[in-house]
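In this section we walk through a basic example: taking a raw amino acid sequence and producing a predicted 3D structure, encoded as discrete structure tokens. The instruction is simple. Fold the sequence below.
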Amino acid sequence: MEMVHSAHRTEYGTNPDVIATAPGRFHLIGEHSWFFKDKTLSMAVNLPVYVAASRRQDASLRFHFVQLKERKRIGLASMKFRKEDRWANAVKAVVYGLTAGGHALGGMDITVFSEILPSAGFGITTAMKIASAVAFRELFGLDCDDRALLKAVERGNKSFLTANNYNSDNFSALYAEKGSLVITDHTKNSCSLVPFPFEDKKVLLVDASVPRYSLWNEETLFEPDNALLLGDLREFKQNAFGGWQYISNVTDINEALSIVSEDTRRKLLCVMREHFDVLEAVSAVQKNDFSRFARAVNHSYESLRDYYDLSCPEIDWILKRVAELEPNLEIMHNPVSCGRITGKGFGRCVYTILREQDVGKFNQKLTEYERIFGFHPSCYEVQAADGAHIVQA
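The resulting token sequence is shown next.
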């Protein structure tokens, strides 16, 4: 906090009027099924982004990202998306979303402070947006509840950035609570929390530093006909989490998916498998059954790798080493650890949940990884964290 305060004062010659923070996050399971109105299981983590702001006498917006040592500026009335502004566009999108929603803002000096850069893929850009929204609401005394704040962020994402709006990202950054996971129900546009009970485990996020690349364009799957097709394979059940689940009859599923290409069929099957993996993981968490939870996580990774074409040799190597930390065959059926690809894009990031005694072994494997592949990984031990809030006003 003192570093944030000092950085703002050094840059602008004035103390911040408000400082807000929001957590980073990663998705455990289900981030690729949002288009099909399914569910996503996420964890907000203690990789915080701080946004400090102070009011100006003019209508200028000035931005400073401390760790990047970058500065941007623009007039409030002439604000527009500029590719060269990179990270600052995320903050500008929030300003746009609020003003387009009828909220009056003025000129500001804005400082962004984050030890983890947006390129890591741990939800830092979303945290920057949500922390900015919370800070600006406080700074200008806006009559704007959390729901309206999320609509402003959505407006900024869709209309200013011309990008998708991911509720699971936004909900995790705003509504998370320490020690809990966030379950986003995309059908109901809502979220709920479930305690994460595995206190004897360590959660590690790894930026594998693999250059991002796309084997295929995920947007090609997001067709209304595909959504209708999966919708026809749903059945409503009162005792199912969220009120519905996909049918389990293999013959009916194969018949329904026979009208699409083999490539699309495999990817839609992965979406269906993700649905059951989310439900299985949530049930396991609620019953404090780590082995069952780990099987759901590992199964999800296998689906993404084999059906969704969403992995790479480097990620596969890391997760294979996780499975080898305990080679006992019985442990393979009742795993004591788990891991899965996560983060932005195809490849790059991994999360793993381990026993404390295995953390050192895993770090040794990461040293081997760097020697074999030539990429320097960054590893962070994280915990479930609180959502966005004001830390100084």
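Looking at the output, two observations stand out. The longest strand covers residues 39-55. The two ends are 12 Å apart (CA to CA). In the next section we compare this with other chains.
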